[in-house]
Specification:
heterodimer; A: 195 residues; alpha+beta; Aminopeptidase; seven-stranded mixed beta sheet; two-stranded antiparallel sheet; 9 strands; globular; B: 303 residues; alpha/beta; Rossmann fold; three-stranded antiparallel beta sheet
Chain lengths: 195, 303
């Protein structure tokens, strides 16, 4: 079952972090998101709970919850500045579970008038994302283009991606930021005016 | 006039109004620094100047001053500077509900114990502070949207005593339209400390390491800082770790630190509140930087 996650899900998400040996396709035994990568997953888990499971308005996560554990989740940031969202984290025990979670996240954001999203990938694996993460339904409805590349260990010059996608971290591999958008023919254009 | 730095050598202005408020988005933000006394500068050194700073601040703020210990290096150095001149200030640490900053509080307690100073622990519900609208109201009164700062201001108000809240003297590597290192003094954060001090008439030091021109210049001319700013590919975005190394050389006994800013577990909360608190505040829409390009800052200090 796909659910919007909250603080009650914190314990259920734990195994997704502590059973991992890679982050963004990078082997944590080799390199190098922080000085002691042994602590990295523990910090990543705490950070996930503090960010996405703590009743904030803009930071949310949907997960596949079955058999008392979370088997996959997608976390995202809903922008107040533009009709867009940022896909920030994906974790799963089984990548076949991801498309249904992504469908739910897209449905949530479309319902709120957010028809495009940004996500950041290890450049080496960027092409495979769409193949495994998109359902047939949304693969047809959404197009995408590559927005910019950030070489390894450099700071992204754009504020929002730097804050939200990179979490102000110098990533040890080359990364690419992609914009994925709902094609025009599937859009019902929302009214964005106010008093 | 309150001294924010010695003889107020550091001045920021908005639209040419010293220590002013922003009236519209197009006004220039400008920062300037005073020059050193050259003879004195030649004769003294960084370690001596840190102690002189403690003496000057003590004279400016008086015996009731409070040092806010954050659990980080800066505030420990400030405390050690006072102890070096024989003054044992009262200290305080803000303890967030739900233990969001528990490691920092533990560190502050350990520092206070090791250095035998009194420490007041100020319990504080930072999330309720925001949800109640109080943070937004206080932030708007001093044109600040950074809850990490507003939280300290609120606690200074509660205590009603002169305070030292930070060391700063931050250097930042510019990217985009600013391509060199610059001495950082942010309108929204550092400037708000001065506005807060003025409006509530509570003496407050937030620029310990810039308190005198001499102190800042010794720091900027330090070999490690010069190395930091001259190496093209050192993967450094700010001077934080280098400053800690410089200070550790002077004070080898300072406690090892993992802390950066105390909001590690509240990053998303911080991001969200920053935008929410600032929603009705006037944004800067022109291209002034939050500080001074480093080469210019050094020229100003050398006089």
């Amino acid at each position: 079952m796909i659910e919007l996650l909250n603080k009650n899900h914190a314990k259920l998400a734990k195994t997704l972090f502590y059973s991992a040996d890679k982050y963004m396709g990078v082997d944590l035994n080799v390199s190098s998101f922080m000085d002691k990568d042994a602590e990295f997953l523990s910090i990543a888990y705490t950070n996930f709970c503090d960010t996405y499971l703590s009743d904030l308005n803009n930071f949310k996560a949907y997960g596949n919850v079955e058999d008392g554990k979370i088997n996959a989740y997608i976390a995202f940031y809903e922008s107040n500045d533009a009709p867009e969202w940022f896909g920030t984290q994906i974790r799963s025990h089984d990548k076949r579970l991801i498309p249904s979670v992504l469908d739910k996240v897209m449905e949530h954001n479309e319902a709120n008038g957010r028809f495009k999203f940004y996500s950041m990938f290890n450049m080496k694996y960027a092409k495979s994302f769409r193949r495994f993460a998109f359902s047939k339904y949304n693969s047809e409805r959404y197009g995408s283009y590559e927005e910019f590349i950030v070489p390894a260990k450099t700071k992204c010059i754009y504020t929002m991606p730097w804050q939200i996608l990179y979490n102000r971290t110098l990533v040890p591999v080359d990364t690419i930021v992609r914009c994925t958008f709902l094609k025009n023919e599937y859009r019902i254009i929302p009214i964005a005016g106010s008093l | 006039m309150i001294n924010f730095t010695h003889n107020n050598h550091l001045v920021y202005s908005i639209g040419a109004r010293a220590y002013g408020y922003r009236n519209n988005g197009m006004e220039k933000f400008n920062v300037s620094l005073g020059g050193v006394d050259k003879d004195y500068y030649r004769r003294s050194n960084y370690a001596n100047e840190l102690r002189r700073t403690a003496d000057l601040v003590y004279k400016d703020l008086g015996k009731d001053l409070i040092v806010f210990l954050s659990g980080g290096t800066d505030s420990e150095i400030v405390l050690r500077n006072f102890l070096d001149i024989g003054i044992k200030p009262k200290c305080a640490v803000i303890k967030f509900k739900d233990d969001y900053n528990a490691p920092d509080v533990a560190e502050a307690i350990a520092i206070a114990r090791e250095l035998s100073v009194d420490l007041e622990i100020l319990d504080f519900d930072v999330k309720e502070f925001f949800r109640s609208g109080e943070a937004t109201e206080l932030g708007e009164s001093i044109q600040c949207s950074q809850i990490t700062y507003i939280t300290v201001y609120k606690n200074i108000l509660r205590m009603g005593q002169p305070a030292i809240m930070g060391g700063e003297a931050l250097l930042t590597r510019g990217v985009g339209n600013v391509s060199e290192w610059y001495y950082t003094f942010r309108e929204n954060e550092d400037g708000s400390a001065i506005r807060f001090s003025n409006i509530y008439n509570i003496p407050l030091v937030n620029e310990w390491f810039s308190y005198t021109p001499e102190l800042l210049l010794y720091y900027l001319e330090d070999d490690e800082i010069q190395k930091l700013i001259s190496e093209k590919y050192n993967y450094k975005l700010s001077s934080v770790s280098t400053k800690n190394a410089v200070l550790r050389r002077l004070y080898p006994n300072i406690r090892p630190k993992i802390k950066t800013h105390g909001f590690e577990r509240l990053l998303a909360f911080n991001f969200e509140t920053y935008r929410a608190i600032g929603r009705n505040q006037i944004k800067r829409l022109e291209s002034s930087i939050d500080g001074i390009p480093l080469s210019r800052a050094i020229t100003m200090l050398r006089g």
